[in-house]
Design goal:
The chain has 85 residues and is α+β, with helices and mostly antiparallel strands. It is built from one helix and six strands; from the N terminus they run E-E-E-E-E-H-E.
Length: 85
């Protein structure tokens, strides 16, 4: 995937996508994820979901389809452990 494009005096670089789990745009969503492209690899991070939402195989399949549609061949899930006291 070419994530850079020059238009006039501007250079655009695709680096981050914000995704919402919803039936249609503008509707309430049950989960969100941020995909940040680092060194040409999408990093799936910041997954947040409501308690009633189960992030499962279909969600992974949907994200994979989106990324392969953009031309990426692989991606990484970034999972940082945060301890809340």
């Amino acid at each position: 995937m070419n994530s850079n494009k020059q238009v006039g005096n501007w250079n655009f670089e695709l680096k981050q996508v914000f995704c919402r789990k919803t039936d249609s745009f503008g509707e309430p969503y049950t989960a969100s994820v941020v995909i940040t492209v680092t060194n040409g690899i999408p990093n799936i991070e910041l997954l947040i979901s409501k308690l009633e939402d189960n992030f499962g195989k279909q969600d992974i399949k949907d994200i994979k389809e989106f990324l392969t549609g953009l031309g990426f061949e692989k991606a990484e899930f970034v999972r940082d452990a945060i301890k809340c006291e």
